[in-house]
Amino acid sequence: MKLSGWGRHPVAECEVVRPRDPEALRQALAVTSADLIARGNGRAYGDSALNPARTIDMRGFDRILGFDSTTGQVIAEAGVLLADLIEVFLPRGWFPAVTPGTKFVSIGGAIASDVHGKNHHAHGSFGQFVDWIDVLGPDGVERRASRDENAELFAWTVGGMGLTGVILRAGVRLTRVETGWIRQTMLPAPDLATAMDLFERGQDATYSVGWIDCLATGRAMGRSLVMLGEHATLDELGEKERQDRWVQQPKRKKAVPLDFPSFALNSVSVRAFNTLYYANGRRQAGSALIDYDSYFYPLDAILEWNRIYGRKGFAQFQCVIPLAASMAGLTALLGAIARSGQGSFLAVLKRMGAQESRFSFPMEGYTLALDFPMRQDTPALFAELEAIAIDHGGRFYLAKDSLLTPERLRRSDGRTAAFTRMREASGADARFRSLQSERLRL
Amino acid sequence: MNKTVLVIGARSDIGIAVARAYAAKGYDVQLAARNAASLSADRQDLVTRHHVGVTLHEVDALDLASHKAFVDDLPVLPDVAVCAVGYMGEQARNETSLEEMSRVMRSNFEGPASLFSVLANRMVARRSGTLVGISSVAGERGRAANYVYGSAKAGFTAFLSGLRNRLAKDKTGVHVVTVLPGFVYTQMTQGMDLPAKLTAQPAELGTAIVKAVEKGKDVIYVRPVWQGIMLAIRNIPEFQFKKMSI
């Protein structure tokens, strides 16, 4: 069947199988000598979870196997979504310790991409809260891996993009919350320096994220709305929120009913939107109580929002620039983006904390993420942005990537050679491949 | 005390979806299938999500002689019993292998009918209960594409209709619901190119069945559009129908 990532580019004809238990998965592995890749809920943007010869749809592994209410550890199969965990455990007072900007990611995908969230500066990435994983290796053998047992396999699989084996299940820790509400503080920043200053001063906040206007130029370059957040305690709730402590009342979902024509998003419409959004944010500056869904997952409320970029799809550029070079790197990137006149509504700036890991994306510094509609000149723009990021010591998020080249990946990330050596040594390179791993020669 | 649902054919996508929908309503669940021990992950899932009691039961729909003992061994006679047993086979093989044809017919008709006969009589003795049979729109008219499967489902649909009539007429307190799901995304239909608007997710089916039982419905099509489609298909004159490929 035709398959793509969330960005709807590239699209590939893939042979898809959907096993429901480990035995069926082992059979799928044994039947073919071809290479394969596991796929979660298809939220990686590019070609990370596409393999024309065989893509394993892991959504059949959607069982929650246990929960320890003293430690907050949930045992879940790889195809369970964060949305499932929230549905089951938020009313019991638990929330994912790390969540990306969509709750429709699978546990397996979250581990393979070692996703991060608005609390990365304080708590690190998703992998920090994974106690163990069960991985089906290239030899068809299932292994438990943790920081103590098969520690190498664990270290490479967290952030390993599914290229070490198939993640079957995991023990993942949730965090205690008193309510499903977030106390948000919105801080407008008229330029990049102010935005970064707000992030640095907001280091004590549990959550911080910025929306950045990538089309603003001159003195307004980098103008942002920085949003800090804390889990609200029961005491902090007003009368209205208290009646819906765990945010159980369903909200109406909106859906994008059709593919937008490609001219719908242009620099005029985006510029107008951004100006309004910033002005509106300034008016709402200050503190407010927001339900977790609107705070963490504003875009999930618009089903299939990826269709606003039209049938040709879009690509997301996400890099992280080390702290010392962040100001210079971001300034150069914003300049290039503004000059291109492209760029999107959805540009996100975030301060990341320090992280040591084998192949995960995060490092201490600033990450910038934004979408571009897929056009003929998009690869050239990405090459330009990637060159700027590399010049400033930055690297790229493979869960978002669809356009990087093997050369630029290696220039940005010195860990790549060790990753490919590990794949050769374990035999994983012969069994586990995606269009992305082929493209990047991983 | 919780009410109880029995799901026969619990390994199927539809069976699991029904079990989940009932567990979400607070029902204890009896999962029955061949090699039932392999359903332990599903048992853990239902327990963790919904804090209900879940038991596993070995059953072989084709082994008629075992059906009474199977029902006797259940810890409690369920309030609702759902049969999601089904086997499509491949039409081409069903045409050439009599053994395979018989297996399809017995899996979709004889086996489920036998299980429901036993359960119906026990429920009548108790004077309460609901039997839910998952049949198929394929049973509404025999088509070249799958008439072996379709004829077996036609038999099951007629059986359910007759059983419902018998139990209602005698005011037994036992009700029968016939489910004609149309296309569903399951392992059985994996690889088929199904039209999205006509194709239900298993979870949709689970919710629809819980609702149909609550409301005491007789026959449900999960997506209403199927009612119109099947009405049209049933009414095509045979001299035309025999030349069509649908």
UniProtKB/TrEMBL annotation, chain A:
| Source organism superkingdom | Bacteria
Q: Which InterPro entries match?
A: FAD-bd_PCMH, FAD-bd_PCMH-like_sf, FAD-bd_PCMH_sub2, FAD-linked_Oxidoreductases_BP, Oxid_FAD_bind_N
Coiled-coil spans are: none
Domain FAD-binding PCMH-type residues, every copy: 8-177
**From the Swiss-Prot or TrEMBL record, what is one GO molecular function term?**
oxidoreductase activity
* UniProt entry keywords in alphabetical sequence: FAD, Flavoprotein, Oxidoreductase
The UniProt similarity line reads: Belongs to the oxygen-dependent FAD-linked oxidoreductase family.
Q: Which PANTHER family match?
A: CYTOKININ DEHYDROGENASE 6, GULONOLACTONE OXIDASE
- Name of this chain's protein: FAD/FMN-containing dehydrogenase
UniProt organism field? Novosphingobium chloroacetimidivorans
UniProtKB/TrEMBL annotation, chain B:
Family annotation (Pfam families): adh_short
A GO molecular function annotation here is: oxidoreductase activity
Keyword annotations: Oxidoreductase
- Look up the record and report any one GO term of the cellular component aspect: membrane
Q: Which InterPro entries match?
A: NAD(P)-bd_dom_sf, SDR_fam
UniProt entry tagged with the keyword Cell inner membrane: no
CDD domains cross-referenced by the UniProt entry: SDR_c
Which SUPFAM superfamilies does the protein's record reference?
NAD(P)-binding Rossmann-fold domains
PANTHER family for this protein: DEHYDROGENASE/REDUCTASE SDR FAMILY MEMBER 7B (PTHR44196), DEHYDROGENASE_REDUCTASE SDR FAMILY MEMBER 7B (PTHR44196:SF1)
State the family named in the UniProt similarity comment for this chain: Belongs to the short-chain dehydrogenases/reductases (SDR) family.
* Official protein name in the record: Short-subunit dehydrogenase
Species source reads Novosphingobium chloroacetimidivorans
